[in-house]
Amino acid sequence: MGKIAINIATGSLQQQEMIVGIDLGTTNSLVAIIHPEDRKPVVLKEHDGNALVPSIVYFDRSGSITVGDEAKNYLVTEPQNTIFSVKRLMGKSYNDVKERSSFFTYKVIDDNTESLVKIQVGDKFYSPVELSSYILTELKKRAEHILKTPVTRAVITVPAYFNDAQRQATRDAGKLAGLDVLRIVNEPTAASLAYGLGMRTDETKTVAVYDLGGGTFDISILRISNGIFEVLSTNGDTYLGGDDFDHAIVKHWMDQKKIREEELMIHKDLAQELRLTAEQAKKHLSNNSNYEGAVAGDKVSLSKKEFEGLIQSLVDKTIQRCKNALADANISIKEIDEVVMVGGSTRVPLVKESVSKFFNRKVHDELNPDEVVALGAAVQADILAGNNKDFLLLDITPLSLGIETMGGLMDVLVPRNSKIPSKAGRQYTTQKDGQSGMRISVYQGERDLVKDNRRLAEFNLSGIPAMPAGLAKVEVAFLINADGILNVRAKELRSGVEQSIEVKPQYGLTDAEVEKMLMDSIRHANEDIKIRALVEAKTEAQLLIDTTRKFLDKNAGLLLPAEIEATTKAIDELRTSLDSDNKDMINQKTETLNEISRPYAERLMDMAISKAMSGKSIRDSI
Ligand code: AMP
Fold it and tell me: Counting Cβ atoms within 10 Å, is residue 523 exposed (0-12), middle (13-18) or buried (19+)?
């Protein structure tokens, strides 16, 4: 672990290694450290005093990448090449986000499958992991520039409700950016740490963290006891925030000035000016009782009272979510010991007053609400660096544990640095019709392909009853006990057949080997992620070829000859592309095959449903 030394001769700091805390936000991201002299957390600022880096990635025609403030300028002029809110897509499939597809002004590929979303810019496909890695690379570069030292280790925060896949995606993004992600920390946990809550091991506290940003609202109820943070409940609204306050002001002014929606559709610059002025008015009213300004040379004004009238229902909505969170955690308002305010929109006095009134106590708002999560991440980083001796570090797994999946990929079930004891589980299914066995190979390490990791054990789950591909449900459970012994169990849930094995992952592993495995994973992150993306694209393509073929065989009679011909051609082209190792081409051909088959697949589905309505079963007709 890195230490910071003060050179007594020069008085300057020599930083052998600095572990940074990163708040990778939906709208903005920032980096913080513990100041080596006064030991207080501080955010890293450029000379212009700006700490926030907009989480926006812009691709110019030649494919070169710009991140942050500069990229923000292209949001209006080149929306299809400017990616914002990528955090909303982390670890998500298209099905997860399709209801909100109009929110994204860039192309989110709708291949209508369960696989992870891809974003298309020009003729290239990017995963949310890659896009997030560009933001992290920029943050790393900035931090190195400000600190004048290499930055290779980080703690990154994520929302408390992020699932395993989303957390893993965030880890991968860090790795791709050349960062060893020591820990993924929940944002409300980080915010509490920034206020020093939970730093004393003998205290038990229940904390409500109210986080209202630009586009999202989260309320989390945490219980801190013996230095362990437990999330009791989370609630919120992924599409509610300060942007809605701005929008309410814009609507108010439009009503006053009799501007119609259609006008704004045509005059994009007027729409933009209205929005920016509304945001300015909102911020002004956080400290003043009246705002006066102009839009397109025409005077506009807003009083604090009027503004509060406009946003009252939105604020009420957040309070209702707080009530739900308390109910889910099964605790009463009286049991909340502390309330922490996070996010720029908590600067609005009505928000602060309403939250304070609801919880019946003074809220923590002493720290900058935009910075508090990053500051807490820095506190956590410092604890992991071993600089904070008062804090006990629990036993952790030094390397990730997982199993081999399609194409030789490593699927991590227990990420490294997880607390021990620990448990995790995931469901898998069969690839072939009538498949009766499944090989479970357990690996340890950080690389994306299992061949580069350490194999711990292998066994066969046999006796799976014959059923069509994809129907079997094989649950693989990892259990690490307090002695560090790993028990892996595989169980087919429909039939109940099961098999298990026990291993000691740390057996025969030296610290130097662990270090080498970690460094290798960072050194090879780029090629690893590329191979993973290629293997995933190939697996998805193969699956689509198989299912489309099956579909054609069964339903040939119901399709037009032209449809069959176009589909067969698209299948052939996709199959040929599989030999190319060109991920973008495979994705493109997968897209094409999906587009060709979607209309008739839907048509046949409709037919099947109407037949089912008239008394026949769906399975008979398709
Ligand atoms: P965040 O996502 O946490 O960075 O929050 C950004 C949101 O906070 C945006 O909607 C901003 O308009 C809003 N915000 C920033 N400063 C203020 C302020 N002084 N008063 C009201 N809202 C603010």
Answer: exposed
The CA-CA-CA angle for residues 453, 455, 461, to 5°, reads: 130
User: What are residue 262's DSSP bridge partners?
Assistant: none
Which of 24, 283, 368 to mutate to test ligand 1, by most ligand atoms within 8 A of the CB atom?
Answer: 283
Check: CB of residue 4 under 8 Å from CB of residue 356: no
Q: Known catalytic residue: 114?
A: no
Q: What is the DSSP letter of 465?
A: P
620 pLDDT exceeds 50?
Answer: no
Pocket test for ligand 1, best of 43, 246, 282, 352 (most atoms within 8 A of CB): 282
pLDDT in tens, 374-429: 999 999 999 888 776 665 555 678 899 999 998 899 999 999 888 888 899 999 99
Q: If we measure between CA atoms, which residue out of 364, 357, 284 comes closest to residue 316?
A: 357
Distance CA 116, CA 93 (A): 4
Distance between CA atoms of 330 and 321, rounded to whole angstroms?
14
Pairing of the two strands 498-503 and 486-492: antiparallel
What amino acid occupies position 535?
Answer: V
Burial class (CB in 10 A: 0-12, 13-18, 19+), 514: middle
Per residue in 21-74, pLDDT tens?
Answer: 999 999 999 999 999 889 999 999 988 888 999 999 999 998 899 999 999 989
DSSP 200-269: STT-EEEEEEEEE-SS-EEEEEEEEETTEEEEEEEEEETT-SHHHHHHHHHHHHHHHHT--HHHHHH-HH
Q: Which DSSP symbol is given to 364?
A: B
211 is catalytic: yes
- In the chain the domains, ranked by start, together with CATH numbers, are 18-195+368-384 (3.30.420.40), 200-366 (3.30.420.40), 401-509 (2.60.34.10), 527-613 (1.20.1270.10)
Which of 87, 118, 491, 589 is an active site residue?
Answer: 87
242 Cβ closer than 6 Å to some ligand 1 atom = yes
Q: Which three-class secondary structure state does DSSP give residue 359?
A: helix
Asked if the bond preceding 421 is cis, omega within 30° of 0, the reply is yes
What is the C-alpha to C-alpha distance for residues 287 and 304, in angstroms, rounded to an integer? 9
Name 269's Cβ contacts closer than 8 Å, sequence gap at least 6. Answer: none
